[in-house]
Design goal:
The complex is a heterodimer of chains A (289) and B (330). With 289 residues, chain A is mostly helical. Chain A has twelve helices and no strands. Chain A has one domain: MetI-like (MetI-like fold), CATH 1.10.3720.10. Chain B is an alpha/beta fold. Chain B has an eight-stranded mixed sheet, sandwiched between helices. In chain B, strands 2-1-4-5 form a four-stranded antiparallel sheet. In chain B, helix 4 crosses helix 5 and helix 7 runs parallel beside helix 8. The longest helix of chain B has 18 residues. Chain B starts with a strand and ends in a 9-residue tail after the last helix. Classes of the chains: A mainly alpha (289), B alpha/beta (330). At the A-B interface, helix 9 and helix 10 of A face helix 2 and helix 4 of B.
Chain lengths: 289, 330
């Protein structure tokens, strides 16, 4: 092989690499959608044409594209588009807070298990197994039925969703790092446990945890929707995506738009976040090699 | 004789392993009644095959793990328990070098950050002083400013080991424990790192416990050496003397396995039998199933360590009865 051929060869290889590192269309669309959704949630007050509780009784169950009501109205004449925009805000806030709580709590438990080992580790792993074995929907149903459902309680409950995954990931990675890797070396330098875990282990495992968060996030949106659909989640007059689907189901035959708009939004949003998470996993794993 | 920087007094350490899913817990004696001492400014080499407990001995000497019985004296006082404040403060005086430098470094931090880290941890000097000190230390191990700003993954194996060395030495420790520091490196790089280690030792009056299975490196770097077999020291003495006149049959076999330049002049002793398994330790002398000079007594009675007149200590029944090397009479 001559030099020129070799150079040519490497340049094609490079071009191939560039092509593979370009963001695929589906992922780009997903990111764009997430940006739009976040934008909607942040500026709901400015964007929504009506308040989500504003009634327009003369025009109840108006079909989509009615002048003044782009996506139609529901059984009380409330604008579906406005309600949708406010629902996105509530659902995102619930899902975001819950994911954060779940990630922080789970990771802390994982680190505690890795640090103390022995009985504490057994106990934490037992709790994680319990969490994984227990159908979460039933657990939350019973908690909400007993304690009523204020929004903070609801968010805290959703924050319990999926913590065991972070615990397992954080525990196993921290143990590996301490056994013979960088964390053991830093401990040996005299670093306090908080320094070892927060400055060294956490940044090193954060990519894995972030990917795990993108998996939990849509699941929490779906869980919130299911609970709201069953009437145990977000309570009227407050509105959320699942809540809209739940109350819209009574009019499924006569006014399907009440239910389809939020349902479609749930599908597209969760799909977008999953696509983004998939992409992140590919990228961040590559970065670690 | 100068004072001992570290002294291991009859330390034992065993781990519990489970055999099979429902098996009973079987204790495995990794280190069994090991006594060693390292004089200030000297290098003691600890050799033995894998599983002989040399790394565990190193970790116990450093206080990373606590011995089940026996005690570790560092400059005459016993080591505090691991992960206590006092133990953490002592880290400045005793450090460790690892076999795999890439695993021992944090991949996300630059070399400078990591070399500076001990100063940050022990809060020494201001931020700019720490940087200067770290750069100076990197210079001392042969790394320049451009290396300082790079990530561990951007360096070669030898450079990484130099970075680990810089991080270990920046606090000017008195004791350095090297756990197979060069076995993951190329032979040419090995020589560089070993030479660097010896230069730094002279400069900083370091005492080194050098754990290795490479007798060539051991011969070059150490003044005294100890040979371990299945958690016990079988022979200990002056490195040159020990390599020239090994007394214990296991040491003899080890020494005979080292290739000699310019043709083989010694007869090679080839050991037969199973390689040692700490979970199924033979009775009596642990080496007797593979020993070419084993006698009936060896299978039942564990040989005591006897000190010969030239400072050599050996644990072997055969040697006690008939010293086979000239040094014994001297």
């Amino acid at each position: 092989m001559t030099m020129a051929e070799k150079i040519d060869d490497t340049s094609t290889a490079k071009r191939k690499q560039v092509r593979s590192s370009r963001v695929p269309l589906s992922v780009a669309a997903g990111i764009l959608w997430i940006v739009v959704i976040v934008f909607l949630a942040l500026l709901a007050d400015q964007i929504a044409p009506y308040q989500y509780t504003a009634l327009d009784l003369p025009r109840r169950l108006a079909a989509p594209f009615t002048p003044g009501h782009l996506l139609g109205t529901d059984e009380l004449g409330r604008d579906v588009l406005s309600r949708l925009i406010y629902s996105v805000r509530i659902s995102l806030v619930v899902a975001l807070c819950a994911t954060m709580i779940s990630a922080c709590f789970g990771t802390a438990m994982g680190f505690a298990a890795a640090h103390f080992r022995g009985r504490i580790e057994q106990l934490i792993l037992m709790l994680a197994d319990f969490q994984a074995a227990m159908p979460f929907l039933i657990l939350s149903l019973s908690v909400l039925a007993f304690f009523g459902n204020a929004l903070p309680l609801f968010i805290a409950l959703m924050g319990l969703y999926g913590w065991e995954r972070y615990t397992r990931i954080a525990r196993s990675l921290a143990i590996t790092a301490s056994a013979q890797g960088y964390a053991g070396a830093v401990r040996q330098l005299g670093a306090s446990p908080s320094r070892v875990y927060l400055r060294h282990i956490l940044p090193n495992i954060s990519s894995t945890l972030i990917v795990s968060m993108t998996l939990t996030f849509p699941e929490i949106i779906l869980m919130e929707s299911s609970l709201s659909f069953l009437g145990l989640g977000v309570q009227p007059p407050m509105t959320s995506l699942g809540n809209m689907v739940g109350y819209g189901r009574e009019y499924m035959t006569s006014a399907p738009w009440i239910m389809f708009a939020p349902a479609l939004l749930i599908v597209i949003t969760t799909l977008s976040i999953s696509l983004l998470g998939d992409r992140l996993r590919d990228r961040l794993d590559k970065g670690l090699q | 004789m100068t004072e001992n920087i570290v002294e291991l007094q009859a330390i034992s350490k065993s781990y519990a392993t489970r055999r099979g899913l429902f098996g009973r817990r079987v204790p495995v004696r990794a280190v069994d009644e090991v006594s060693l001492s390292l004089a200030k400014g000297q290098t003691l080499a600890l050799v033995g095959e894998s599983g002989s407990g040399k790394s565990t001995t190193g970790r116990v000497a450093l206080g990373l793990e606590r011995a089940d019985t026996g005690c570790v004296l560092f400059r005459g006082t016993e080591l505090p328990a691991a992960d206590t404040r006092a133990w953490r403060r002592m880290r400045a005086q005793m450090q460790m070098i690892y076999q795999d430098p890439l695993a021992a470094l944090d991949r996300r931090l630059t070399v400078l950050d990591q070399v500076r880290e001990p100063l940050d941890i022990h809060e020494i000097g201001s931020a700019s002083e720490r940087n200067d000190k770290a750069l100076a230390m990197l210079g001392a191990v042969g790394l320049n400013a451009s290396h300082a700003g790079s990530l561990p993954s951007e360096l070669s194996g030898g450079q990484r080991q130099r970075a680990v060395l810089a991080r270990a030495l920046i606090m000017r420790p008195e004791l350095l424990i090297c756990d197979e520091p060069v076995s993951a490196l190329d032979v040419s790089i090995q020589a560089q790192v070993v030479n660097l280690l010896m230069d730094l030792q002279k400069e900083m009056h370091l005492s080194i416990l050098f754990i290795s299975h490479d007798l060539k490196v051991v011969r070059q770097i150490s003044q005294r050496m100890a040979v371990m077999y299945l958690g016990r020291i079988v022979e200990c003495g002056d490195t040159k003397d020990l390599l020239a006149n090994p007394a214990h049959p296991y040491t003899k076999a080890l020494v005979s396995a080292v290739p000699v330049a310019g043709g083989r002049t010694r007869e090679r002793i080839i050991l037969t039998g199973e390689p040692p398994n700490p979970a199924a330790r033979p009775t009596g002398c642990a080496f007797h199933p593979r020993c070419p000079v084993a006698r009936p007594q060896c299978a039942s009675v564990s040989p005591a360590v006897t000190t010969l007149s030239n400072g050599r200590s050996v644990a072997c029944h055969a040697v006690e009865i008939a010293p086979t090397f000239m040094g014994a009479e001297a």
